[in-house]
């Protein structure tokens, strides 16, 4: 899957699609990615990595930086701007909690989230970033103690979308972990992801995944940030090194040193 912010629709903040859309438009992700990653990665508007088949980019305005539109959407949703620059509604402030694993999110990604924090505040969001170790991050994610979260997930096919977006993924494992962080139960989306996983017709599979991704974009459930990254540093003396198929991690079984 692409590196992305997933919005928890089960919380107070992002239960309203207008607020989710406003959050999408509040930050200049493209410039942030270009600046913080020094041109080594590109902004993504897809649910999956560019190396994964049947991913579709959505450059039709769903993720455009447009703070004027963000303000209009929040006004329409009934969130009023306060004197301190934070919006509120029915006595509740417009808050967004983002837990960040300092072991899992690289510094550039953390800086990008800090940029989102600063720019979304300009339209009235109060974003709190909570740095924590990996165990604490898993605990917070499992307990739904977040409004938005970045959670890497890899698989060697577009079926990764079934794992992270199918409603089955809302149910926690015994450890408390759940792969679905958007907290959405959508029968049509579930059916598309199931059919795409079962069919052997590539054209049909592509169409099914395209429909599924459009539902996710239309619902404003996910903010894609940048393309999946796997970087391996090794000496040129190392021979036979390759990436494991499913998770793109180094595979050393056939590697040797060329002396």
Describe the 3D structure.
The protein is an alpha+beta fold and 259 residues long. It is 33% helix and 16% strand. The strands form five sheets. The protein has a three-stranded antiparallel beta sheet. Strands 2-3-4 form a three-stranded antiparallel beta sheet, with no helix packed on it. Helix 1 runs antiparallel to helix 3. It is globular, with a radius of gyration of 19 Å. The two termini are 38 Å apart. The model has no long low-confidence stretch (mean pLDDT 94).
Biggest sheet layout: 3 strands, antiparallel
Poorly predicted tracts of residues: none
Percent helix among the residues? Answer: 25-40%
Looking at the structure, what is the overall shape? globular
The strands making up the biggest β-sheet line up spatially as 7-1-8
Hey, roughly how much beta strand do the residues contain?
Answer: 15-25%
Tell me the number of helical segments per DSSP (H or I, 4 or more residues long): 8
Query: How many E strands?
Result: 12
State the order of secondary-structure elements, H for helix, E for strand.
EHHHEEEEHEHEHHHEEEEE
Q: From the alpha-carbon coordinates, what is the Rg to the nearest angstrom?
A: 19 Å
From the N-terminal CA to the C-terminal CA, the straight-line distance is 38 Å
Category by helix and strand content: alpha+beta
* Overall pLDDT metric: 94
């Amino acid at each position: 899957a692409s590196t992305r912010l997933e919005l928890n629709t089960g919380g107070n903040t992002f239960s309203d699609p207008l607020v989710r859309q406003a959050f999408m438009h509040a930050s200049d992700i493209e410039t942030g990615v270009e600046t913080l990653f020094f041109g080594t990665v590109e902004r993504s508007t897809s649910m999956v990595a560019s190396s994964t088949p049947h991913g579709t980019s959505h450059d039709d305005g769903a993720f455009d930086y447009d703070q004027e539109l963000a303000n209009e959407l929040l006004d329409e949703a009934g969130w009023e701007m306060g004197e301190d620059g934070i919006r509120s509604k029915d006595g509740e402030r417009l808050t967004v909690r983002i837990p960040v694993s300092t072991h899992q999110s690289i510094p550039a990604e953390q800086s990008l989230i800090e940029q989102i924090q600063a720019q979304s505040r300009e339209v009235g969001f109060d974003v709190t970033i909570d740095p924590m170790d990996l165990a604490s991050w898993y605990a917070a994610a499992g307990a739904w103690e977040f409004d938005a979260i970045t959670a890497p997930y890899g698989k060697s096919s577009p079926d990764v979308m079934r794992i992270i977006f199918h409603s089955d993924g809302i149910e926690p494992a015994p450890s408390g972990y759940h792969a679905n962080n958007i907290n959405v139960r959508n029968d049509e989306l579930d059916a598309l992801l199931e059919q795409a996983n079962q069919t052997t017709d590539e054209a049909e599979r592509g169409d099914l995944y395209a429909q599924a991704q459009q539902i996710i974009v239309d619902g404003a459930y996910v903010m894609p940030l940048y393309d999946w990254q796997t970087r391996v540093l090794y000496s040129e003396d190392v021979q036979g090194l390759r990436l494991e198929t499913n998770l793109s991690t180094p595979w050393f079984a056939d590697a040797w040193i060329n002396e």
